[in-house]
Structure formats: structure tokens, C-alpha cells
Design brief:
mainly beta; four-stranded antiparallel sheet; 10 strands
Amino acid sequence: KWLYHRMWKWAKIANDENWHFDIMGWKDAPQYTRYEFPDGHYDYHMDCGGGNINHRKISITIMLQEAEEGGMFQLLYGREPFNIDLQAGDAVIFPSFVLHRVTRVLSGERRSLVSWISGNPYK
């Protein structure tokens, strides 16, 4: 319960200061993700769209364990990716429609917790 409370607080502050989305809470359970060498990565994607994820408004990634090498979290706003240097305990909060990825883990293991704040679908 304390984790949901903390994620909500962070998301609400980011939303109030930046986007002003109509948000309500959680519809999806958080996702524990583990990336390992040699195939651990996730190509560019958005966390919202049609189907059963059209309610996602704000994405939250919490770094639990950094990879020894690689496994960089990147946002893509324009032509060049923007690196987000996450260390264990750090979080990044961003609109779910922003393209993002995790680069290939070159050594070690990367662990994170991902969650999405929901609201009514965009109109």
C-alpha cells in the first residue's frame, strides 16, 4: 500500500506541474521486469494506444537494480534518444504516449518496477 501511495504522490506532482491529464488511479497491476545479457532489452514503444491499454496516461519506471553495463533507459522526443541515468531507487515519470526503450544489457542484470496511472481514454 505504501508503494502505491508514493507512486501516486510522485505522479500527481508531475501531472499537476506539467500535463494536467485527467487521472484516476490504477487499472493495471505493476510489472516487475528483469533484463539479462545477452537478449535483455525492450525496443521503442508507447505504453498506451488502442485495445486494452488506452486508459494509460502516466508511466512510472522505478529502478531496482542497475545493469553492470548497458540497459540504459531512453526517451525519444525527436530524432535522438535522451538518456535517463537511473540508479537503484530512482524513478522516471513520463506521459505514456512518449516513445521509450531499454537498450541491450551488455553485462549484469537490470531490474525495474513499471506502473501506469490511468484515466479516461483521450478524446
